[in-house]
Design brief:
Layout lengths: L1 E4 L1 E12 L5 E3 L3 E5 L4 E6 L5 E9 L5 E12 L3 E6 L10 E2 L9 E3 L22 E4 L3 H18 L2 H12 L21 H8 L6 E9 L6 E5 L12 E7 H5 L7 H14 L16 H9 L14 E9 L5 E9 L5 E2 L2 E6 L6 E8 L4 E9 L7 E7 L6 E5 L9
Parallel strand pairs: 1-16, 2-7, 10-12, 12-14
Antiparallel strand pairs: 1-17, 2-8, 3-10, 4-5, 5-8, 6-7, 6-9, 11-12, 13-14, 15-16, 16-20, 18-21, 19-20, 21-22
């Protein structure tokens, strides 16, 4: 496949300042505003360190271009920066490209409390409660943000996809009782891919809390509804909480024990029971192995990762009234090259379409893919692309009302 190179621009961070942390964190909430041809304001409302920003811009002639800003210093989590670049002319404000779409819940971690603000300890002479669920402190919130950010990065890796598929193909090998590997799937989609899409589905509200525990040996509690995956984002919600001692023990470095308990409760928050392989099963051991392999320093805030290769879609209606999508692929390091890519289409609906390679005789190779749909998409089609020797997978959601064009 011939892959186009994005335009790489070196950017100087002239200044940055902290912004108020939102109570609900969107894991890819990065925006940019053009002040003039050389000055920009980038807002990072995420728990990630940001080193690069990938943009789609429209030139004054109506052409679309992909630009990567490489920052000369790190943009902190929950901060905005004024950056300066060489002169860049185009017509409209840029759009930040976001193609890390696996495990992207809305993370509810605020408002935080002081440790004694909610009193869970009973008055003298009264029996202690078995549990008291309460909001996070500022320290515990930071722990939850770091853990979730590392989980998000790992979930968008090739290793994650192969690991979750293998886990269900092999009957949930980490479970003592294989009968507890029961799970859901849809026609044409295996259990691994189904759960890859469902676990952490975009938009699902994930409320993270802590537990002051009196009596009882439990380590956490969680519950929630199954996300609605027929739309781009889900309006469903769930909660996950763990004992405060686990948070306390992880303030100076997140323990694997906290990863196990909180990811287990995250499974419940997305509507999974213990008989699914997505509570005691995959999140507690295989997923943690992916996280630690993906980032050895998984106890601290990670950098926001940008996929090695991304997909851009141009959609239109042909003369027969059918929707067509032309897919082009871009190397985010800026190199135009012929390179082997892996392309996959994942949907929980039975989406039928024709697939045709686009051949450019001047280049002497394939430059893209044409998709033709006989009917409108009834749910998102996840278009997933990676280099065969790459580490990460970009995920682009093609929707029935898609209006994204590239010239």
């Amino acid at each position: 496949m011939y892959v186009k190179g994005v335009t790489v621009v070196e950017a100087k961070v002239a200044s940055q300042e902290d912004i108020m942390k939102p109570d609900i964190v969107i894991l890819d909430d990065i925006s940019i505003i053009k002040k003039n041809a050389r000055k920009w304001v980038v807002s990072n409302n995420t728990p990630f360190n940001v080193n690069s920003v990938l943009l789609q811009v429209t030139t004054k002639k109506g052409q679309k271009k992909i630009i990567r800003f490489n920052l000369d210093s790190v943009l902190r989590p929950f901060a905005k920066a004024v950056i300066k670049t060489r002169k860049i002319k185009f017509g409209s404000d840029p759009m930040v490209i976001k193609q890390n779409k696996i495990f992207t819940p809305r993370l509810s971690v605020g408002p935080t409390i002081e440790i004694d603000e909610v009193d869970c300890i009973p008055p003298a002479g009264q029996v202690a409660k078995k549990k008291c669920i309460r909001p996070l402190t500022a320290d515990y919130r930071e722990v939850a943000e770091i853990l979730t950010a590392n989980a998000h990065n790992a979930a968008n890796s090739k290793q994650y996809t192969s690991s979750i598929r293998s886990y269900f193909e092999n009957g949930c090998p980490t479970l003592n009782n294989s009968d507890n590997c029961k799970t859901e799937w849809v026609d044409g989609l295996d259990a691994g891919l189904y759960n890859m899409i469902r676990f952490g589905y975009e938009g699902h509200l994930l409320k993270v809390k802590s537990i002051y525990a009196g009596k009882g040996n439990f380590q956490g509690l969680g519950g929630g509804k199954k996300p609605s995956m027929m739309d781009e984002t889900s309006g469903t919600k769930g909660f996950a909480s763990v004992r405060e001692k686990l948070y306390k023990n992880s303030v100076d470095g997140i323990s694997n024990g906290l990863y196990k308990v909180l990811l287990h409760e995250y499974g419940h928050a997305f509507g999974y029971s213990h008989k699914t392989g997505m509570s005691y099963g995959f999140p507690m051991t295989p997923f943690i192995n992916v996280i630690t392999d993906h980032n050895a320093d998984h106890q601290s805030r990670p950098d926001l990762q940008i996929p090695d290769v991304i997909v851009v879609s141009e959609t239109a209606t042909n003369s027969y009234g059918n929707t067509e999508a032309k897919l082009s692929f871009f190397d985010t390091s800026g190199q135009s090259q012929k390179k082997e890519i892996e392309l996959d289409f994942v949907s929980i609906c039975n989406q039928s379409f024709d697939y045709q390679l686009i051949l450019d005789t001047q280049i002497g190779g394939v430059t893209g893919v044409d998709l033709t749909f006989q009917e409108d998409l009834s749910c998102p089609l996840h278009i997933r692309v990676s280099y065969s020797d790459g580490k990460n997978i970009a995920t682009y959601k093609l929707l029935g009302h898609e209006e994204m064009f590239y010239d």
